[in-house]
């Protein structure tokens, strides 16, 4: 029923880009972090090794795609570890699936069948990997309920991704956002009005590069944790990503200005009726005006006018997310280990 095609070089994946994008458009569970606009730039900026991307075809059409790689894991005695591409910067990692039969789109075959074929292939190709460490996987992923025959599989909690389900109108925000937060938003807007006029700008083809540079400058000024990518690498990665999502009409790059002075900036991606809020920053010179609160409030109002029904704040339990009324959704780590007798034969 299914055929498996392997891609083991980043350059080869460019030829798959069109089919890959079409599959994402058909998938019921895709996030921006499974799209080629995200993962192909990641492959240039951050990869620990060459990819092992598996394309599952049925009737010649792409039915599923697993953007995987295998690397020598220094934290596990150098064992060959199967993982998702996108590690470190992606908030969701998963297989991409099409739940329909290519010969009859009205006849659903279920995504589990394609994922089961993928897992059988992983079992057959056991010589390539020693352990699987797949994360962060969303709660509705078929990977959490399926495993290769005979393999030991376990699931562990990974992160939480708080999100806010929006009402249909700006006037109804009080139904989901705490009263205290909305009162604070009105207060800081009045205070800002004493200094000038607030204006929310949305970056387009002529302005996105300058606006992205501004955001990254705000963001990097307050992010100096060890282990994070350096500023030059991060900037180069996000320039490629932003250009790709802009081209497909899914980039959200906002700047809140007070007259001509930028106060705050926010960067994310739309997928269906959900906006994934990836990065924020603000001008520390205006910290007394709570620019982060004003910026996010203005963006939420704009998203509502564009038909967005959920803001996903992505991983992390930062207090500001819960101040807006966000509720947690979990992600998980799926660990796969081969049968002991299989490991003995390999040895």
Q: What is the topology?
A:
Elements lengths: L2 E5 L2 H4 L3 H10 L9 H10 L7 E6 L2 E6 L1 E6 L5 E6 L11 E2 L2 E2 L2 E5 L2 H14 L6 E8 L13 E9 L2 E3 L13 H15 L4 E5 L5 H14 L9 H17 L3 E8 L2 E11 L2 E9 L8 H15 L4 E3 L6 H5 L6 E8 L2 H7 L1
Structural features, described:
With 347 residues, the protein is α+β, with helices and mostly antiparallel strands. The protein folds into 2 domains: 3-159 and 332-346, Aminopeptidase (3-Layer(aba) Sandwich); 163-323, Gcn5-related N-acetyltransferase (GNAT) (Aminopeptidase, 3-Layer(aba) Sandwich). 32% of the residues lie in helices and 29% in strands. The protein has helices spanning 10-13, 17-26, 36-45, 111-124, 179-193, 208-221, 231-247, 291-305, 319-323, 340-346, and strands at 3-7, 53-58, 61-66, 68-73, 79-84, 96-97, 100-101, 104-108, 131-138, 152-160, 163-165, 198-202, 251-258, 261-271, 274-282, 310-312, 330-337. The protein has a 6-stranded mixed sheet with strand order 11-16-15-14-13-12, sandwiched between helices. Strands 4-5-9-17-10 form a 5-stranded mixed sheet, with no helix packed on it. The longest helix is centred in the C-terminal third of the chain and has 17 residues, at 231-247. It is elongated, with a radius of gyration of 22 Å. 38% of the residues are buried.
Please give the number of β-strands.
17
The share of residues in helices is 25-40%
CATH superfamily of the largest domain: Gcn5-related N-acetyltransferase (GNAT)
N/C terminus separation: 33 Å
From the alpha carbons, calculate the radius of gyration and give it in angstroms. Answer: 22 Å
Number of domains: 2
String of helices and strands: EHHHEEEEEEEHEEEHEHHEEEHEHEH
Shape: elongated
């Amino acid at each position: 029923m299914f055929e498996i095609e392997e891609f083991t070089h980043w350059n080869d994946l460019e030829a798959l880009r069109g089919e890959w994008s079409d599959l994402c458009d058909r998938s019921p569970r895709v996030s921006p972090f499974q799209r080629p606009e995200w993962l192909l730039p990641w492959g240039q900026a951050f990869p620990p090794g060459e990819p092992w991307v598996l394309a599952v075809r049925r009737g010649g059409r792409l039915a599923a795609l697993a953007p995987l790689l295998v690397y020598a894991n220094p934290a596990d005695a150098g064992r060959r570890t199967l993982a998702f591409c996108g590690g470190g910067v992606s908030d969701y990692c998963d297989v991409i699936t099409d739940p329909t039969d290519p010969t009859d789109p009205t006849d659903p075959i279920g995504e589990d069948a394609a994922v089961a074929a993928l897992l059988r292939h992983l079992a057959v190709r056991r010589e390539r990997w020693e352990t699987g460490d797949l994360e962060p996987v969303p709660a509705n992923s078929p990977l959490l309920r399926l495993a290769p025959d005979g393999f030991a599989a376990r699931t562990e909690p990974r992160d939480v991704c708080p999100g806010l389900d929006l009402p249909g109108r700006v006037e109804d925000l009080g139904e989901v956002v705490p009263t205290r937060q909305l009162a604070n938003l009105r207060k800081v807007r009045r205070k800002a009005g004493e200094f000038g006029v607030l204006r929310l700008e949305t970056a387009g083809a002529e302005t996105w590069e300058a606006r992205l540079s501004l955001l990254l400058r705000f963001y990097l000024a307050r992010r100096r944790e060890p282990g994070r990518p350096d500023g030059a690498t991060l900037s180069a990665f996000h320039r490629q990503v932003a250009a790709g999502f802009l081209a497909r009409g899914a980039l959200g790059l906002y700047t809140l200005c007070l007259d001509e002075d930028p106060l705050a900036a926010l960067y994310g991606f739309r997928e269906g009726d959900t906006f994934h809020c990836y990065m924020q920053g603000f001008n520390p010179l205006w910290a007394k005006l709570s620019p982060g609160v004003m910026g996010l409030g203005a963006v939420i109002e704009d998203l509502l006018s564009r038909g967005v029904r959920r803001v996903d704040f992505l991983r992390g339990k930062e207090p500001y997310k819960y101040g807006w009324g966000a509720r947690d959704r979990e992600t998980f780590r799926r660990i796969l280990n081969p049968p002991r007798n299989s490991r003995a034969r390999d040895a």
